Amino acid sequence: MWATVPKLREANMTADLEAPLPAGQEDYAIQCRDVCRSYGKLKVLSNLNLAVPQGHIYGLLGPSGCGKTTLLKCIVGTLKISRGQITVLGKPPAFPGHDVPGRKVGYMPQELALYNEFTISDTLTFFGRIHGLTSKETQARMNFLIDFLDLPQKHSLVRNLSGGQRRRVSLGAALLQNPELLILDEPTVGVDPVLRAKIWQHLVEIVKTGKVSVIITTHYIEEARQANVVGLMRNGCLLAEGPPEAVMKQHSTLERAFLQLCQTSDQISSKRGSSPQGGPLENSQSFESSRDESQPILAVGLAAKDEIPKYTADWKVRARHLLPKWRNIAALMIKTLVRMKRMPFSLCFQFLLPVIQISLICLCVGGDPKGIHVAVVNNETSPSSFSQSLLSFLDNSSVHQVPLSHKDAFEGIYNGEYWGVIGFGKNFTSYLTKRLLYRQVSRDVVDGGSVHVWLDFTNRQIALMLQKKLHEAEYKHFLVQFEEPIYGSQNTDFTTFVTPGAVLSITFYLAVGLTALSFVLERKEGLLDRCWVAGVSSLETMLAHLFSQLFVISVQIILLLLFILLVFKMPNEGSLVLVIILIVLQGVTGISFGLVISSAIDDEQNANQAALGIFYPNLILSGIIWPVECIPYPLRYLSLALPQTYASEALRCIMYRGWGLSQMMVWRGFIVTLGWNTFFLILATVILKLRT
Ligand SMILES: Nc1ncnc2c1ncn2[C@@H]1O[C@H](COP(=O)(O)OP(=O)(O)OP(=O)(O)O)[C@@H](O)[C@H]1O
């Protein structure tokens, strides 16, 4: 059997060239030379050679998992090859100045790769914009495709379509711009036989001009008879390549031919595996043992083995290639806005969430505790006594005084009914007067002329508040006069300290939340790759996300400021413009950080974990809820380097001290924010570029 293979190849090469096959380099739409690609240790493509002649349909057939999709992804350039060379329409994919990826190629990935919130019309309009079609051209193509692919009304939402209908929309998007090269990964799965025949008929029609080439994978082997060339693939190698009639020559169907070739390939492998080096088998089976794996067992006329030249581009073309196209950015931004419009509840939630968060912080964090029950044991009875006068200065809204006997007061505090006991001896007024009049008094006089306070310190904030209120009453009573503070007000509570940092933190984290999943989901659904093949660069994707999320955070920031300044009456002594700029910059930093997560992580769960995982450490270390001065060294250095530490301080300085950019504590916050911003954006673009 084995000895017949070369004969078979020879015979076929000479006799079976029914389809005229090209010979020159430029006559191939796609050429793959010794292409290798692995996923980790799994070698998926090994020394694969394949040539798609210009103006032909190439049917790529093979069992599930043999590497067809991987090969197509390498051809469109979304996967990098580990070794070998690929040219598509004359140049390597993604070569500077080349239109692949771009308008010249129509790619239908195996995943549906459609935006569920889009209508059919939105989908085609979006890809039309990216390809630079006028709205008239898009409309004309849309009408044709809807009719040709038997699609429902163009205003039907993709998420409401059946699986087969979605697949046809996806095919429509690939056909939209009349590309020179169509790369279709299983376009006919789930499509009824009548429409399947229609699609093939259309492909046959468009290649007749000689200007369009198609490479198509399918599981329906027999439908590939309509292709001009078929390639039978197995385990990352091409078993046969040639016109279907030639491949079928010895077998009645393509399926049988394929089965036979698989058996032949298996026998070669097993013989090679069992034959020891230099053994008798090796000598008797010299052809099979030395068979070049990169060559198909059966190759009929497609010996495009000529070397692929090295390509170069001058720096101007390279520079132009790197510059973002506003057309693509606009298309992506419109896409995001349309998606937002289709999810109004989600959008409202995004707008209201920061307001809800800051309102809760202003209402519940940092204020003085109210209505704290304190037992008062006053052994003085005279209404004109100092003890009565001092108690009258105590802030009644915070401290609720309960007059009790000594025994009941201590029973109450031990039972948790009171937060403190305030006690006055029966000679408090006279002893206190003595203390004020005489320099030297006995210990008993000092003791009897003092207010005795026992506190429950299990809640430090309440205990500190009670201490503070008692001191205030004491100061008011005993001549100490606190003048208006230099900065801030005497009634400044902890909320005032927390709010600026909280505003920055909320803006930052909501922006992270908005963007952390954006690429993850789009990558998973194949949308990122699809847009990339349509000609959208990583930088454009990044900028479009940034700009459209800027719209969302702008609304969030306006609402936040309205609430903190007008509803919660936080003071702002400085420039409102500086306040807004700093908050917006923090939002942009959040978006950029979200983009880093999104481009580096493939899976929603991990992306969520990364976003949530840094939330608390960053909040705690940034001096937002507690002063940075409490953080021990060397952790303090880390704290100072974080994006919100200096920024929160700067915002407090602007709002409460009325400082401007000339003060170091203010400009430092801006510089750190801008630095993180730039770093995250560059990092995200680089990661995204490396991964697509
Ligand atoms: N991202 C990935 N990471 C690791 N392995 C992968 C990845 N994608 C594909 N593979 C593996 O590579 C091999 C080839 O996959 P590929 O999708 O190219 O096959 P295929 O021929 O297109 O299969 P099908 O016809 O079922 O779509 C499979 O074993 C698959 O498990």
Automatic annotation (TrEMBL):
Keyword Iron-sulfur: no
GO MF annotations in UniProt: ABC-type transporter activity; ATP binding; ATP hydrolysis activity
PROSITE patterns on file: ABC_TM2, ABC_TRANSPORTER_1, ABC_TRANSPORTER_2
Transmembrane portions of the chain: 497-521, 542-568, 574-598, 665-688
Membrane-protein topology: Multi-pass membrane protein
Cited InterPro entries: AAA+_ATPase, ABC2_TM, ABC2_TM_bact-type, ABC_2_transport, ABC_transporter-like_ATP-bd, ABC_transporter-like_CS, P-loop_NTPase
Ranges of residues in domain ABC transporter: 30-260
Pfam families cross-referenced by the UniProt entry: ABC2_membrane_3 (PF12698), ABC_tran (PF00005)
The organism's place on the tree of life at top rank: Eukaryota
Compositional bias segments (type: Polar residues): 268-288
Residues covered by region (Disordered): 268-293
Gene Ontology CC: ATP-binding cassette (ABC) transporter complex
Residues of the ABC transmembrane type-2 domain: 459-691
Protein localization: Membrane
PANTHER family documented for this protein: ABC TRANSPORTER G FAMILY MEMBER 20 ISOFORM X1 (PTHR43038:SF3), ATP-BINDING CASSETTE, SUB-FAMILY H, MEMBER 1 (PTHR43038)
The protein's name: ABC transporter domain-containing protein
Organism: Amphiprion ocellaris
